[in-house]
Amino acid sequence: MKxxxxxxxxxxxxxxxxxxxxxxxxxxxxxxxxxxxxxxxxIQAGTLNVDIVDESGDSLDGKSLSFRNVTGETNIxxxxxxxxxxxxxxxxxxxxxxxxxxxxxxxxxxxxxLLEAIDFAVVTDNTKKDAxxxxxxxxxxxxxxxxxxxxxxxxxxxxxxxxxxxANNDYQGLTLEGVSITVYATQYTYENDSFNNEYDANAGKxxxxxxxxxxxxxxxxxxxxxxxxxxxxxxxxxxxxxIGNANIAxxxxxxxWNSDVAPxxxxxxxxxxxxxxxxxxxYIYSTGKAAFDVILTGSVLGAKDSGDITxxxxxxxxxxxxxxxxxxxxxxxxGQMAVGVWSEAGVQSMTVPHRVASVTFHSCTxxxxxxxxxxxxxxxxxxxxxxxxxxxxxxxxxxxxxxTKNNSNPIWIQNLGQCNVTIEGCTINxxxxxxxxxxxxxxxxxxxxxxxxxxxxxxxxDATHKNVAVMFCGGKLDNVEITGNTVAGNATALIxxxxxxxxxxxxxxxxxxxxxxNVLNGAAAESVLWxxxxxxxxxxxxK
Length: 543
Fold this sequence. Notes:
Layout: H1 2-24, E1 50-54, E2 67-68, E3 83-86, E4 89-93, E5 99-106, E6 118-123, E7 140-142, E8 148-149, E9 158-163, E10 180-187, E11 207-211, H2 212-216, E12 227-231, E13 235-236, E14 241-244, E15 252-254, E16 268-274, E17 281-286, E18 293-297, E19 299-301, E20 314-318, E21 324-328, E22 331-332, E23 336-341, E24 343-347, E25 350-353, E26 356-362, E27 365-366, E28 369-373, E29 378-384, E30 387-388, E31 411-414, E32 417-418, E33 420-424, E34 427-430, E35 434-437, E36 441-448, E37 451-454, E38 468-472, E39 476-483, E40 486-489, E41 493-497, E42 506-507, E43 513-516, E44 525-529
Parallel strand pairs: 11-12, 12-18, 13-19, 14-20, 18-21, 19-22, 20-23, 21-26, 22-27, 23-28, 26-29, 27-30, 28-31, 29-33, 30-34, 32-36, 33-36, 34-37, 35-38, 36-39, 37-40, 38-41, 39-42, 39-43, 41-44
Antiparallel strand pairs: 1-4, 2-3, 3-9, 4-8, 5-7, 5-10, 6-9, 15-17, 16-17, 24-25
């Protein structure tokens, strides 16, 4: 009996042990543990912000300085011997970071005739006619928020103008526009990181500033430079001007027929040439120079009106093909103008046009007519926040009786070529439409959030219906978007088509034409046929 009891106890122990082992399977043994953590303090990026302020501390960015007489009046007339000053201004560090800055005063030299009669200078004393001029040749530094130049709170810069005593009647009634003061800033070696204050020692070394003459004299772009600012310096467009030169621009060479071997020194394939006689192919190759941004500033004087699409006043870009070119706050004077990229002659006896990546007009003012026949030579053209002032062509009446005031378009380019066009946030005051899509033209079109203040031309009658904002005459287009625009003044319509068949754009496969969300303010229609009030849109619009 006792023996059986022992066996049963032993069996129970074995079962209990087996159960404990089973329970331990999949179980993790725990050690005593603890933890501690800390957060990283908020990361706050500093701000780099430079401004030009007036004597009240208000920003002058995007505003105008005015010359004043002793009573503070700004509606003044200059005469020999007179001296005027603008209101005072300072350059101020409005951000958190130390900065270095460069001041460029544009429009004090150039081809404007009135510049011959007026001496300009920047001074810090507006109580003396002969106060010493200030030089902005060297960079300045503003290390802390609120720091200013001039540093003394009671001292300001003034732009002084003195009309020479020997100015004769040749200067009566003339005007001068395009004078501007621009400050360019970048971070300065001052604050420390975890090592020292040298982390931004190279800031700004990739940027260079030139006059037009100095830029055009370069034999190469300095190593490491990625952005160049070029002051157009009030040059006249009469006879045209060139920006850049053959030394800094790309060059082309053809390869052999039916070969894809690049010629030595021309590594980049940029085009194709097909021989008509037998269909043989050869490729165009480029030197493929490095891209850099070209920022054009200042002002130019318009060329004499021709009233024709003759490319009067041409601005020719002669820079590497990969460049992005921006006209920044440039004032284009009264008269005619055109813009294009150079064509290279002597490429194995051929003349081959060059192209750049993009041409942008940002916050520019146009005071004349842009009349052009031929491609602008850019993959993309952007016009953003620009102002077009109403201008009627002054070339007069041609021998055939045609009045050139009919060609008073803010922009009229025939044969634009393949180019994506964006016109956004602009104010257009005009008597004739923008015309970019006529003849050989293609690409995407975006016309968005602009204000078109239209009026009749001085030669128009009540039966004339040419006061339309935008005109389409031809080409084959990619996606088109015309949205958010406002038509004001005396307008027939927002857009028009030249006719229903022979001069009406075609659309590429899959492309759309969106016309919506525009405010007409009494215009006859959103879309009409040219020279009529007849409402019409092609079938592809809003499909």
